Amino acid sequence: QLIQIGKFYELWHEPDTPSRQQVYSQAELLIESSMRSGPLEATPPIEQVASLLDMRITSPGKRSLLQMGFPIYSLTNHLSTLLDKGWTVIVIDELVTGRSGPKQRAVSQVYSPCCNLEDCSELSYVLSIYFSQDDLLGITLFSAMNGHSIMFPVSWADRDKVARLLISYRIREIVIWANLEVGPEILINKIYNLLIGWNLFPSEPN
């Protein structure tokens, strides 16, 4: 979330705050589980964004909050960088109410690699993968630009056949749902091997 604070957009993070959302770095995911020194550690989004945008993270005052930001006028350039790296960006702007008191804010835009309607130069697709408990994969391809969608099931044993179909589509975003009673490490490795086999995950960090 990029929150407008005056003439800047800012990103905040409070360390050691429990969250259901886990963000792993691409470099960490590319390390085989047998070669890792320990379990996967989620990297705070603010650290990944700061690295991508080559910005510093500060801690204002004596508070534990971490903060980074940039001027409003540079949003377009930074947005392009984040979308190219697969990030979904929520922009929260200040509302002009004409009233005194605390600023009111609301979500003004949601951008993702496949759902950026301000840039329709290429037809992009979202790939949704559903992992069921009976070794079936539910596959959905959807384009927000023209509404075209394809849905079909495939068994885990036949998963390699899907790769030939996916070659015909420009996939910019992947959404994964899992209904498996396995640990996160096993699930991540299963997803990792599937995406590598479908040529949807790079062999090296980019």
TrEMBL record:
InterPro entries: DNA_mismatch_repair_MutS_N. The keyword Transferase does not apply. GO terms for biological process: mismatch repair. Keywords: Mitochondrion. The keyword Iron does not apply. GO terms for molecular function: ATP binding; mismatched DNA binding. It comes from the Eukaryota. This is MutS. It comes from Pterogorgia citrina. The gene is MutS.
